[in-house]
Design brief:
Layout: E1 9-18, E2 28-40, E3 43-46, E4 53-57, H1 67-73, H2 77-83, H3 87-101, E5 106-111, H4 114-127, E6 139-141, H5 142-150, H6 176-192
Parallel strand pairs: 1-5, 5-6
Antiparallel strand pairs: 1-2, 2-3, 2-4
InterPro entries: RNaseH-like_sf (IPR012337), RNaseH_sf (IPR036397), Rv2179c-like (IPR033390)
Protein name: Exonuclease
Pfam family, one: Rv2179c-like
């Protein structure tokens, strides 16, 4: 029986901003993505995270929102109702972008923490188009990656306790594209780190 070789992985950092804690009752109001790097076997090659990016602001899907959650992003909900992208169109554009940048590799969404961003992203991909270029489980959590490599409990895997050389020099602004780029740098630093 022939040994099946794994396709290279293309890691795509994704950050989302939402107006509440869960998708469905609440809305993903913006999301950004940046190619972090590529892994072939044991070799990881970092990408310039500003080179291949995607960003959309979305029209809310419900009237419900949590004012404190909305305030984090600084986005104007009334403007998004009028001018935000239709979620179905935005997710179709995102699927096409992911497939284009990962044409010869398996795309993997990575986030910090992935649990929140993946919940919204996957729900939106499935609700507005019925498929995900990442499959149902193609995500990697940077908190878990750090905790495993550093051999610390997951609750101790916070940026404030990480070695400075792992952190991006960019600010975390709560603008989804800015944060996706910042986290793409963290992802590459973590992948290349040998503690």
């Amino acid at each position: 029986m022939a040994v099946r070789t794994a396709r290279p992985s293309l890691y795509i950092s994704v950050d989302i901003e939402a107006d509440g804690p869960i998708p469905g009752p609440y809305s993903m109001i913006s999301f950004g993505a940046a190619v972090a790097g590529r892994q072939e076997g044991e070799v990881y090659t970092a990408a310039d995270p500003e080179r291949r990016t995607f960003y959309r602001e979305l029209r809310p899907i419900s009237d419900a929102y949590v004012p404190e959650a909305l305030a984090v992003s600084g986005l104007d909900r009334d403007r998004l109702v009028r001018e935000g992208a239709d979620p179905r169109a935005a997710m179709a554009e995102f699927r096409a972008w992911v497939r284009k940048v990962s044409v010869d590799a398996q795309p993997v969404m990575c986030g910090y923490p992935a649990s929140f961003d993946w919940t919204f992203l996957y729900w939106y991909l499935m609700r507005f188009g019925g498929d995900s270029p990442f499959g149902h489980s193609g995500c990697l959590d940077m908190k878990t990656l750090y905790a495993t490599k550093a051999r610390v409990p997951l609750r101790a895997a916070v940026k404030g306790r990480m070695p400075r050389e792992l952190l991006s020099r960019r600010r975390h602004t709560h603008h989804a594209l800015d944060d996706a780029i910042e986290q793409a740098e963290l992802m590459s630093n973590l992948m290349l780190w040998r503690p």
